[in-house]
Amino acid sequence: MNQNSDYIVVGGGAGGCAVAGRLTEDPSISVTVLEAGGGGDSWVVNAPIGVIAMLPTKLNNWAFETIPQPGLNGRRGYQPRGKMLGGSSGINAMVYIRGHKVDYDHWAALGNTGWSYDDVLPYFKHSENNETHGGQFHGQDGPLRVSELRSDNPFPHLYVEAGKQAGFPVNTDFNGAEQEGVGIYQVTQYQGERWTAARGYLRPHMGKRANLRVETGCHVTKILFEGKRAVGVQMMQNGTLKTLRANREILLAAGAFQSPQLLMLSGVGDSKALQALGIPVIHHLPGVGQNLQDHPDFVFKYRAKSLDLLGISAGGSIRMLREFSRYQSQRRGMLSSNGAEGGGFLKTDASLAAPDIQLHFVVAMLDDHARKLHLGHGYSCHMCLLRPKSIGEVTLATPDPLAAPLINPRFLEHPDDLESMVKGFKLTRQIMDAPALSNARTSDFQTADVHTDDEIRAVIRATSDTVYHPIGTCKMGIDAMAVVDPALKVIGLEGLRVVDASIMPTLIGGNTNAPTMMIGEKAADMIKAELRQ
Predict the structure, then answer these.
(1) Is 136 exposed, middle or buried (0-12, 13-18, 19+ CB in 10 A)?
(2) In 91-171, beta strands by DSSP E
(3) Contact by Cβ (8 Å): 516, 501
């Protein structure tokens, strides 16, 4: 590991893959990617039904938990994060969503020059290879494959019909001119297989670009500094402590939990908190780990007898054997499902500038992230709040770099969040109770006797959790709590940037995978522009 690189990318997730792939298009720029997990190129990952890897296992998954959440009746939340090349794009539900125009315009209004919707749209298009949509909003020659689902499942179409019956518009492109409405999600797949950030940005070039080096099984434990300049990293690989130097910069892309954790372990953060743990302070930066935001999520659950739905039964097992054969030969059918096939963006108040509720209609009855299993078949619908006011933090439990950080999203601690979710509950139930879906179910698993606002509040607190979109803990901005500037450089230090979802100053209205790749694309472009100066 003595060979130096111009850039070291810490983390092989969505942001890390994108920035490394784009930087190494220039043969004069050398990049080393360090990933704590494995290669992430297996049948379990590539078959979309492998979304079950997001469930509570350690398979390619950090499988973090939050600290007890008072807003969730003291429960610990579950926080899966991908641990492989591709990061969480290897375990997520593959939903391709960018967020709303107002989100990025808000970033720019906060002082983040160059991050308005008009500024970031070209990077989304540059990233995207969309098999269906083109025109002013979409790209069709980027490394990220985006396609229509190939599961051929009738239930998402029943969901869309129920949405129409409930009076909501149908939207065939949530990333186009308008986001509002119900429809079927596009997914990050290609010919029925999952298309991770690594498959798009890294794998085509590994072993072919001499300037790209990818190392797996590398748990980075510290960023090394000379004065205020980051010059290298220390890491554990195969039980051995190693160091690697960067000629130009360290690009931190370890995600919303581990990027701030690594900064704090390295002496960058709130000085009092670091000193209390015996960590020598390199740079006082109080915003590190603060500003954690995530989408709180409630799940409606229904039983149904159809074998078109995933579940546990003798008939379902026989059906799955047939589906396995079909997937092997055609790359179609249930094994190509992303689970969350149907979608929707709704407004709890017509005067809002953008939808504040997102739906994920799932062709299985998931209970508590599938930690609670039930016999039979069914479907479910997630309802998440897109711009919650509750803001949490990530802190260190210990100076041990191999220990998990303390994750505190503070779900539903702001009273407005619960009231907005009550409104979202009522909107979603209109769709769930419309004839197209209500005629397809045998029973309402959890909310049949939930009617009053107090009963709705109680069931939301009793069962809600994350929909897996943590951001914000290395906030981009120009205020006192900002961690990086609009060029993603860590404020007050040299040779160090953050290139992942932790830089988002506020949550975007949708899934965070595609926006994180956009951040990697834009970071690479900014770095190349600086090198040309």
Answers:
(1) exposed
(2) 128-130, 144-146
(3) yes
DSSP 3-state of 213 = strand
Q: What is the C-alpha to C-alpha distance for residues 292 and 19, in angstroms, rounded to an integer?
A: 23
CA atoms within 13 A on the CB side of 430: 15
Residue 384 phi, psi dihedral angles, 5° rounding: -120, 150
pLDDT over 70 (residue 426): yes
| pLDDT given for residue 431 in this prediction | 98
Task: Clarify whether 100 is annotated catalytic.
Answer: no
Active-site hit among 106, 283, 360, 469: 469
Beta-strand relationship, 240-252 and 311-312: unpaired
What is the reported pTM?
0.97
Number of CB atoms found within 10 A of residue 73's CB = 13
Decide: 214 and 39 in contact? Cβ < 8 Å.
Answer: no
**Secondary structure in 3-state letters for 288-326:** CCCCEECCEEEEEEEEECCCCCEEECHHHHHHHHHHHHH
Beta bridge pairs of residue 229: 226, 494
CA dist., res. 142 & res. 22, Å (int) = 11
Q: What is the mean pLDDT of the chain?
A: 96
Closest CA to 82 of 379, 501, 450, 465: 501
